[in-house]
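Researcher: Sequence of Signal peptidase I follows. Predict its structure.
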Amino acid sequence: MPPSYPPGRPAGHEDAAGTDPRGGAAGRVPRTEESRRGGWFRETVTVMVSALVLSILIKTFLAQAFYIPSGSMQDTLAIGDRVMVNKLAPGPFELDRGDVVVFVDPGGWLGEMPPDNRPAWQQTAIEVLTWVGLLPQDAGHHLIKRIIGLPGDNVVCCSADGQLVINGEPIEEPYLKPGTNPSEMEFDVEVPADRVWLMGDNRSNSEDSRAHLGDPGGGMVPIEQIVGRAFVVLWPADRLTLLSNPEETFADVPEAS
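Model: Prediction complete. Tokens:
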């Protein structure tokens, strides 16, 4: 006698596929509104935590934004610019003459900082957001200048034509603020190992290596104090630009003897 099946269930349609006679997949519990909200919340928290961790890792090892508070690098950088700094130079990438770098105050360059009169909660919020990389680093204990002399270089001001001379070769500096001389102060320095000679592009308004010749270290900045190389102006939007190295300026400079 042929097998019998419940009405409405044709032969060969057993429950092998896991269907439930009442409709829907066997064992599947309909999601409630509460469970859907919980899933959305967990996904949102996961995304936010992942983004936060990624931001901290990038700031710590790869790149960091900095705020420009002064005019010492005009017209290359303007007051209020936000620049991004490549923290792999120095490191995997070498520093070159002409690089614009952010460095930690080697001691006494910035003087006494004015008091911060903002409310305590605002200071704390800014510090936290800066620490995780969501806000640019304020000047604080950092400065930004251009590398002019590398370890072993002889840097002199000035030639008969008023140019800087590096290892006997005078250089043209197109990045200087228009109307600014290479230097009003004469100097003749030898850059020691593991240090660099730094100058601002607005030479008449830059407290750089020249201003610290009499300090311990003779105005030279230890390479270990360099945070990284600035490579782009991020903000304001109308100033978005790459900070390329002026290789032609130093192309004829011989290596230090």
